[in-house]
Amino acid sequence: MVIKIHGIHGTTCTQRVLTILYEKDVPYELIPVDWRNMEHKSEDFIKYFHPFGRVPVLEDDDGFILFESRAIAKYIDKKYGAQGTKLTPDEGDLKGYALYEQACMLENIYFDKGAFGLAWENVFKRQKGDGEPDGVMVAKHAAQLDETLAVYERILSERKYLAGDELTLADLFHLPYGVMVRDLGYTSIFEDYPHVAKWFDGLMARESWKQVASFGFRKP
Questions:
Q1: 31: domain range?
Q2: pTM of the complete model
Q3: Do 72 and 117 have their domain in common?
Q4: Could you give the C-alpha distances from 153 to 17, 32, 118, 158, in angstroms and in order?
Q5: How far is CA 77 from CA 2, 66, 131, in A?
Q6: Sheet-wide strand order for 57-59
Q7: What is the CATH number of the domain that holds 76?
Q8: Domain match, 31 and 108 both
Q9: Rounded to an integer, what distance in angstroms lies between the CA atom of residue 210 and that of residue 144?
């Protein structure tokens, strides 16, 4: 049996997990979730897979269930640590591992705040029938993202990746929402910072992301 991922190929959090699966050379089976018919909010899905009714969800070959894309990615990298790309510093490298966890938090707390906010206002809000983009909120989220990338520029002027000179999960976690924001027309937020632009262009050029991006972003 192979790992099963319950999710939607063209959505951001599922893409985050699939990117890591490709980096680690791990075979998987994508189990499509019928978003339009609210399968993820069904009683069975909430009971057996995700208590908040979201995707993606990992179902391992031994029946182990895990939800939340970043947790799933870390699990995959740990379980298949001996194959594919090394994406986590050794825990014995105390400082290196601490910098890696710090970089993961940068993405989750700072980058995601602005990037998700722009995605929500420009895409998800309409999908959920919650109205049109709020110009004030769009400007606020764009400013948040710009502020974050200004800090990234300083970090990346001193190292190749956010946690050091080796690629980690923390870098790859940025891809789905970062690409979505760029595709929405906010390319200048990245291009205003040369080290950030070089870093992100390198991430987008990775074969793992090309495999995932070839399916494109699909609206649920």
A1: 3-87
A2: 0.93
A3: no
A4: 26, 38, 20, 9
A5: 15, 14, 39
A6: 28-32, 3-7, 57-59, 65-67
A7: 3.40.30.10
A8: no
A9: 28
Per-residue pLDDT of the chain (220 residues; tens, 9 = 90+): 799 999 998 889 999 999 999 999 999 999 999 888 888 889 998 999 999 999 999 999 999 999 999 999 999 999 999 999 999 998 899 999 999 999 999 999 999 999 999 999 999 888 777 788 889 999 999 999 999 999 999 999 999 999 999 999 999 999 999 999 999 999 999 999 999 999 999 999 999 999 999 875 543 3
Final residue before a domain boundary, out of 53, 87, 121: 87
* SS3 category, 204: helix
The 3 state secondary structure assigned to 112-132 is: HHHHHHHHHHHHHHHHCCCCC
Domain endpoint, select from 60, 87, 114: 87
- What's the number of domains the chain is made of? 2
Q: How far apart are CA 132 and CA 102, in angstroms?
A: 35
CATH number at residue 193: 1.20.1050.10
Rounded Cα distance between 169 and 166, Å, is 10
Provide the residue count of the chain.
220
Q: Write out the DSSP string of 169-215.
A: HHHHTTHHHHHHHHHTT-HHHHHTSHHHHHHHHHHHTSHHHHHHHTT
* Residues 3 and 57 sit within 8 Å (Cβ to Cβ): no
> What is the CB neighbour count within 10 angstroms for residue 219?
12
Q: Are residues 121 and 75 in the same domain?
A: no
Residue 37 maps to a domain: yes
CB atoms within 10 A of CB 129: 6
